[in-house]
User: What shape does this take?
Amino acid sequence: MSHAISDRIDRFVGWLKWPVAVVALVVLVPSLLASFELLVTCGRHPETILPFIGGAGLYLLAWLWTIRRWRTTLLSTFEHEFTHALFAILTLHRVTELKATWSRGGHVRIIGLGNWLITVAPYFFPTVCFFLIPLFRLLTFVPSNFADAIIGAAFIYHITSTMRETHGGQTDLKLVGYLFSTMFLPTAILVSHGTVLAFAWDGMKGISIFWSDIATHLQSLAVLIGLGA
Assistant: This one.
């Protein structure tokens, strides 16, 4: 029964693939403007994100100094494959195997057809950050500055590990198609990464403001091209 349900979901997600790509293109400029405004706001009041910047900076220094030279990629490979598995579970698949190796990549096996969202998820979704955000909200005894610093480090970790995994020979990108990846990923990255930065800036209120700014710019774009009042 669950197999049949996941197959139906996969077909539905497959049908949505190109409509989602078109929507992503439409939302690209509003997302870019909202992200730019968020960066400007953070730049004007850097004290609000100093712990986040500190954690991000320390990890970046460690990455530049030594991590980027490591031949082994177990942690980044595990996160990559775990993100595949996470989105498989979210679309009601049963994961039968998750494997990550030190230097020979990894894979996830699921029951069902699979869909493009599972395939492309690691390239835009900072999994560690989105696990830490609700975790630290639940663990209220953890100092907010420490939590923000850890999230900042996780943010740069995601960026550097994704940089390593994103290349022309990546089978995931071939599978979903380079055209779709080009249409979908820029907006998905701006929205997901902007959400993390907005949280570091002003918690859940910051996320709400960031998403509202995207909606406002989208409405302004509609008015500009004559589709809205």
About this structure: The first strand starts at residue 94 and ends at 100.
